[in-house]
C-alpha cells in the first residue's frame, strides 16, 4: 500500500474500483486545518478526467499497467483478433475496445494497455498517430469548387473508412490519416 506522499504524474492507481492515472497533483498545506492533495485523475476505461481531493497520508492502491505491441490479424462478427509481436500469443477484443477501428487494416501494428491486477485485462487498443492508407474511391474535383475556404471532399479508403481530404487527392493515391481526429495528413 502506498500513500498520497507517493503521488507523481503518471502513477497508476485504483480509485473507486476503476483504474486511473494521475495527470496532475498538488500538495496543499493550509494555515488552518489538515494538509490535502488536489489531483486530476484520468479514468483509463473511458478517458474521462476526474478531479478529487485526498487527505494527506491517505492510503491508495497502486496498480500495475503494461503496454504491449500487437499486430492486427483479422476481424469477425465478434470483434478483432490480434497477435503479440514477440510471443505470438493471440488475443480477441470486442468492437467497443478499439477506437477508430475502421482505419485499421490487416498487418497494422497497435499498442495495447493492460491492467495486471486483480486479473489481467485489456483497457485500450491504440493505433499509431498516423496510418498510411490507399484511396479506393474519390470523386473528381469540379472546377470552381475552390471558392469556399474549405475546399475538401469525402473519399473512401481501402478499409472502408470515409475521411475528408483536399480536392487534389485522387483515386489510387496513398495518404496518411491522423487516427486521433481522422484528419488528412499528407500524400505519400
List keywords for this structure.
188 residues; OB fold (Dihydrolipoamide Acetyltransferase, E2P); 5-stranded antiparallel β-sheet; mainly beta; 0% helix; 3 domains; SH3 type barrels
Describe the structure.
With 188 residues, this protein is mainly beta. The chain folds into three domains: 2-62, SH3 type barrels, CATH 2.30.30.30; 65-126, Beta Barrel (OB fold (Dihydrolipoamide Acetyltransferase, E2P)); 131-187, Nucleic acid-binding proteins (OB fold (Dihydrolipoamide Acetyltransferase, E2P), Beta Barrel). 0% of the residues lie in helices and 53% in strands. It contains no helices and 16 strands. The chain has strands at residues 2-3, 12-15, 18-28, 36-43, 49-55, 59-62, 65-76, 79-84, 90-93, 109-115, 121-126, 130-138, 152-157, 162-166, 174-178, 184-187. The strands form three sheets. Strands 1-6-2-3-4-5 form a six-stranded antiparallel sheet, with no helix packed on it. It is elongated, with a radius of gyration of 22 Å. The N and C termini lie far apart (50 Å). The mean pLDDT is 88.
